[in-house]
């Protein structure tokens, strides 16, 4: 992407909320990117940012070799906001003093605004802020005044208004800080004077221009997985270079009901996108490779390897290409380590990167976007809701939602049950609260009675979780009426199932998927 006119540079000191800061800034339609704190002064100047934010971090500024940025950053005339460790770094570098706090503060903390500040415009005299620190600013640097305090923290916020330097000991970027969004908005729009012109449309336009410039007359290949990221990447590339793009969609027969058809309807010959679309119906191949395999990791490996094999076979037919498209998004980039070259996702939605495809360079057109921004770009490019609003779906698909051996029959049974479950979740309008929801086919058969006869059929398990990061999750309390109706429909409409269970476990100790 081309440099945007207006941006906020976030210098990362290793804090766990660093990407939330960029996220919050972007909510004000101002582009923001996270860089390692070691980003040179020259690089910062080149970016000509409207503002700089220093993040929190796990260190103490008093440690030997503590991570610190250059003093000159505060002399550029560019507004700076230091958050938590970033606040302490600012204090230390500019001649204040940081000491170990007698009382550490952790969690939501009553905070008093003690002086008027552009940062606290529209924030009342008392507010609740999220704290997480064991050091405190004990002495202000020259030219600074205290603007907020708490019972145990005499410098909860400080500033040098003349130099546009601001610092908060608390974290305005987390939602537990009641007025955090207002404070960041104040910093970005009022203090930095950003106009807030960064929008989805401008991203699409600048991306299309720079992709055209980069690709020239080259050939581009993209593996479509059916997931949001690869679909949006393909749509963007198609807008940029049309028929120079070939998309290969390997249908492994482990997608949810109708998903393969939905992908084809959008990208195939009858769809609205100008590209070469190849659908490989490889379900039988995958089922036959999966025969007799019951171990979850062995299934993952088999599906991943087979996917690559099928993709390579198709790629060979196309011949050498210049570029291979990856649907990497910003959280992947940040998680794979800032400052290092991007590591290709090992757990990419389609199960890995083909080693033997003949290409010169990888293109990652979404690498600076968060998931919801990717969805917005997808909508702006005309992708339908069924594709852009899709919840995360594992690369191995239903293969890891069928416990034990995968067979064509079991896939069919699970697809039907899962489709009913999803339909009822939509009917009851509970989807927006859920991080992920799906049906899984247990390997258990149990006795039931239907009509006057005995049945001995499978039990299907329903799962719905609430989660922000998929690292931890809690079981969602779905309306009983909805579960009851779903169970009724499944046992009546899906042959082969006579029992429906609801999984009430959180993660940990369970995982989200069953395998
Ligand atoms: P777990 O089951 O580990 O899932 O709690 C966390 C998130 O990761 C997804 N997941 C996968 N995604 N390939 C993927 O592309 C996989 O093998 C895989 N296993 C789990 C899962 O759907 C959830 O969103």
Keywords:
515 residues; alpha/beta; nine-stranded mixed sheet; five-stranded parallel sheet; 18 strands; binds xanthosine-5'-monophosphate
Assembly state:
single chain
Bound compounds: xanthosine-5'-monophosphate
Low-confidence stretches: 339-352
End-to-end C-alpha gap: 38 Å
Gyration radius over CA? 26 Å
Widest sheet: strand order?
A: 2-1-3-4-9-8-7-5-6
Strand fraction equals 15-25%
Class by alpha and beta content? alpha/beta
Write down the overall geometry: globular
Separate helix tally: 14
| Helicity level | 25-40%
What's the β-strand tally?
Answer: 18
Mean pLDDT: 92
Largest sheet: 9 strands, mixed
Structural commentary:
The protein has 515 residues and is an alpha/beta fold. 31% of the residues lie in helices and 24% in strands. It has helices at 18-26, 41-47, 85-93, 180-191, 200-215, 228-241, 259-267, 283-290, 296-318, 330-335, 371-380, 385-388, 408-427, 480-493; strands at residues 7-12, 31-36, 51-54, 80-83, 97-113, 126-139, 145-149, 157-160, 165-168, 220-224, 245-251, 276-281, 323-325, 361-363, 436-450, 453-466, 474-475, 497-502. The protein has a 9-stranded mixed sheet, sandwiched between helices. The radius of gyration is 26 Å and the shape is globular. Residues 339-352 have low confidence and may be disordered. Bound molecules: xanthosine-5'-monophosphate. Xanthosine-5'-monophosphate binds at residues 300, 347, 349, 392, 394-396, 436, 470, 507, 511-513. Xanthosine-5'-monophosphate is lined by residues 300, 347, 349, 392, 394-396, 436, 470, 507, 511-513.
């Amino acid at each position: 992407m081309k440099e945007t006119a207006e941006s906020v540079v976030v210098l990362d000191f290793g804090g766990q909320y660093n990407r939330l800061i960029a996220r919050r800034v972007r909510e004000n339609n101002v582009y923001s990117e996270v860089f390692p704190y070691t980003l040179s002064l020259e690089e910062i100047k080149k970016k000509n940012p409207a503002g700089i934010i220093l993040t929190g971090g796990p260190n103490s500024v008093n440690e030997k070799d503590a991570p610190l940025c250059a003093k000159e950053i505060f002399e550029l005339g560019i507004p700076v906001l230091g958050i938590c460790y970033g606040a302490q770094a600012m204090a230390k570098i500019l001649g204040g003093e940081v000491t170990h706090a007698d009382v550490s503060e952790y969690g939501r903390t009553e905070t008093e605004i003690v002086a008027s500040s552009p940062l606290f415009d529209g924030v009342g005299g008392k507010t609740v802020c999220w704290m997480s620190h064991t050091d405190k600013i004990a002495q202000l640097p020259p030219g600074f005044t205290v603007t907020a305090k708490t019972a145990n923290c005499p410098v909860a916020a400080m500033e040098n208004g003349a130099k546009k330097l601001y610092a908060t000991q608390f974290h305005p970027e987390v939602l537990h800080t009641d007025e955090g969004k207002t404070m960041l908005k104040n910093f970005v729009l009022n203090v930095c004077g950003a106009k807030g012109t960064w929008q989805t449309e401008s991203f699409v336009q600048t991306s299309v221009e720079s992709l055209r410039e980069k690709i020239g007359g080259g050939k581009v290949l993209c593996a479509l997985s059916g997931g949001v990221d690869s679909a949006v990447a393909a749509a963007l590339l198609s807008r940029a270079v049309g028929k120079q793009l070939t998309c290969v969609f390997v249908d492994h027969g482990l997608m949810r009901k109708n998903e393969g058809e939905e992908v084809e309807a959008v990208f195939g010959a009858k769809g609205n996108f100008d590209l070469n679309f190849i659908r490989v119906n490889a379900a039988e191949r995958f089922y036959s490779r999966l025969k007799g395999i019951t171990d979850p990791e062995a299934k993952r490996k088999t599906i991943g390897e087979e996917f690559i094999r099928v993709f390579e076979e198709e790629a060979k037919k196309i011949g050498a290409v210049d570029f291979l498209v990856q649907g990497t998004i910003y959280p992947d980039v940040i998680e794979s380590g800032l400052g290092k070259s991007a590591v290709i996702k090992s757990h990419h939605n389609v199960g890995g990167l083909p080693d033997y495809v003949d290409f010169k360079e990888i293109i990652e057109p979404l690498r600076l976007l968060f998931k919801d921004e990717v969805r917005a770009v997808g909508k702006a490019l005309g992708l339908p809701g069924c594709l852009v609003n899709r919840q995360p779906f594992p690369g191995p698909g239903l293969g890891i939602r069928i416990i034990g051996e995968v067979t064509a029959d079991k896939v069919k049974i699970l697809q039907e049950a899962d489709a009913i479950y999803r339909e009822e979740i939509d009917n009851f309008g509970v989807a927006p609260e859920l991080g992920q929801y799906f049906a899984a086919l247990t390997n258990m058969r149990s006795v039931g009675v239907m009509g006057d006869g005995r049945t001995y059929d499978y039990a299907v398990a329903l799962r719905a979780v609430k989660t922000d990061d998929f690292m931890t999750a809690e079981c969602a309390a779905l309306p009983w009426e909805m579960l009851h109706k779903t169970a009724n429909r499944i046992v009546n409409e899906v042959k082969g199932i006579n029992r429906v269970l609801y999984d009430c476990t959180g993660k940990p100790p369970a995982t989200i998927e069953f395998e």
